[in-house]
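Throughout this chapter, every protein is written as a compact record of paired, labelled lines. An example of such a record is reproduced below:
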Amino acid sequence: MASDLATKWRTLHGDSFPGVRALVPGGAGFIGSHLCEALVSLGASVVALDDLSGGDRKNLESFGPVEFVEGTILDREVVARCTRGCKYVFHQAALGSVPRSVEQPRLYNDVNITGTLNILEAAREAKVARAMFAASSSAYGDNPVPWIETLPVAAKSPYAATKVAGEAYFKAYSNSYGLDTAPLRYFNIFGPRQNANSAYAAVIAAFAKAYIKGQRPVIYGDGEQSRDFTFVHNAVHANLLAARRAKPIGGLVINVGCGDRISVNQLARDMAELLHRPDLAAIHHPERAGDIKHSFADLGRAKTILNYAPVVQFRQGLEQTVGWYKTVIQQ
């Protein structure tokens, strides 16, 4: 499987990264580790900086070599040291979870905004060629779908607000210092290595854990809310395309999704089918503060600027993800 994946990335990205040094803050996390894996398979020299608050060193053990540095993006000296000599920075480090951000807004401000500033300062001082940023579709709030990047931002949670602030900082550094940047607005990324054990687990991870343990999954609200669920390899692909683009991106925000809509009720039915548990009907709880009703990516700018199109569709990605959870979650 690993060799097949390496072949896939080489087919898509050729010889754009051999010998390139890249920093991935959040590299031991869910998305960050997949990005590290792709970069290593493409011949890059990769530094993964992670404080392990949400990541796990085991995420980096199935491939290599990766230079792992345990540290926080709030430590300016560590960030600066890791960034020296790097051509690219792929900033994936952040506290996720909308509900937790509602409970702990100051913590989210410190990590997601001040930490992002530290990364940008280090990238500017190290004269990196381009810095990519894991932005979030939560920036759109309750704007009508499909979401196009020219819509006004409308953050509904402290988490969303920190991601909007990160976009603004990346744009400002392009304008003020000439550091080329690419904020990529992720839409509901899912896949292997996404933690199912957190109280704030993303919906696919939470559903997988429930079904495998023989429990009824919990849906917040009526379940008719829809998401543009996007398999993690699509996010990796977009980051690699952004890094290797010949022309400047200049802080332009770019959607990264699948361009499809799946309701949470439909997701529950699909996962029940894949895990052979149609008997486990979902339990409905009240809506959570800060949650949005619908998300759906317009991919026109991604296609124009990055030549991006999804490389894994929803159902294929869901099958891979469910298969992975079956191997790591004990019944």
User: Anything to note?
Assistant: The radius of gyration is 19 Å. The mean pLDDT is 96. The chain has eleven helices and 13 strands.
